[in-house]
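User: Reviewer 2 asked us to show a designed sequence for the structure in our supplementary figure. I'm pasting the C-alpha cells here. Could you produce the per-position amino acids so we can include them in the response letter?
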C-alpha cells in the first residue's frame, strides 16, 4: 500500500469511530440507568418531600441558579434534626459529621460525561420538574431507612438520544406536573410544549 493510499484510509476510520460514538450515545449502551448508589447515610426523600412538604430547593438550593444543584450540608440537616428524630441511627451519623465540622461524603448518582454540560438552572427555571429526570424521587425510601430501604438510583438513561428527544419533541408541562404529583390546573394544562435548541454547541461547549 502506498503512502497516499494509507492516508486515504484515515478519514474512513475517523468516520467509523464517530458513528460508533454516536450510536453508543443514542442507544444508551453506556448508560447507568437503574444503577443504585449506596450512601454514607441512608437518607430517604419520601418523609421530607411527601410528608413534610419540603421543596427540593430547600436542600438542593443551587439548582435554580447554578449548573450544579448543590447538596445539603450537615448544617442544613441539623437545622431540623437537632430536635427531630435525634434517636435515629442515621441522624446520629449526620450529627457526627456535623459535630466534627466535616461534610457528609455523599456519593454522586446522576452524572453525564465530562464533555457534556447540563446546566440545572436553565431547566429548573424553564419549569422542568425534578421528577422528569430523576423519576419518582419524592417516593424514594418511603418505607424508611431500616425497612426494605432502596437507595437513590439513576432513573433515566441520560444518554444523548434521551436528551435530544426532549429538546426536539418538546417538554410537556402536564407530564412533568403529573410526575411530580402536582395537581393539574387549567393554567398548567394551557401551558404550551416547550422546545429547545439541539445543535451540538448547546451541550458540548
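Assistant: Here is a per-position design you can include in the supplement:
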Amino acid at each position: 500500500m502506498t503512502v497516499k493510499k494509507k492516508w486515504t484510509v484515515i478519514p474512513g476510520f475517523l468516520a467509523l469511530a464517530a458513528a460508533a460514538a454516536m450510536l453508543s450515545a443514542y442507544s444508551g449502551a453506556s448508560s447507568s440507568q437503574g444503577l443504585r448508589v449506596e450512601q454514607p447515610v441512608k437518607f430517604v426523600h419520601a418523609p421530607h418531600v411527601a410528608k413534610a412538604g419540603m421543596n427540593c430547593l430547600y436542600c438542593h438550593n443551587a439548582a435554580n441558579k447554578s449548573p450544579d444543584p448543590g447538596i445539603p450540608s450537615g448544617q442544613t440537616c441539623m437545622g431540623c434534626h437537632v430536635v427531630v428524630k435525634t434517636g435515629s441511627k442515621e441522624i446520629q451519623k449526620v450529627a457526627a459529621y456535623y459535630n466534627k465540622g466535616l461534610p457528609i461524603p455523599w456519593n454522586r448518582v446522576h452524572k453525564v460525561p465530562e464533555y457534556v454540560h447540563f446546566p440545572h438552572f436553565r431547566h429548573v427555571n424553564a419549569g422542568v420538574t425534578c421528577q422528569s429526570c430523576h423519576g419518582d424521587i419524592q417516593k424514594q425510601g418511603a418505607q424508611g431507612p431500616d425497612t426494605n430501604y432502596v437507595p437513590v438510583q439513576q432513573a433515566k438513561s441520560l444518554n444523548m438520544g434521551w436528551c435530544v428527544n426532549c429538546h426536539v419533541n418538546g417538554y410537556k408541562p402536564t407530564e412533568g406536573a403529573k410526575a411530580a404529583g402536582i395537581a393539574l390546573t387549567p393554567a398548567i394544562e394551557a401551558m404550551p410544549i416547550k422546545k429547545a435548541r439541539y445543535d451540538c454547541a448547546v451541550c458540548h461547549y
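For the response letter, you might also mention the following. Residues 30-38+109-205 form one domain. The first helix runs from residue 3 to 27.
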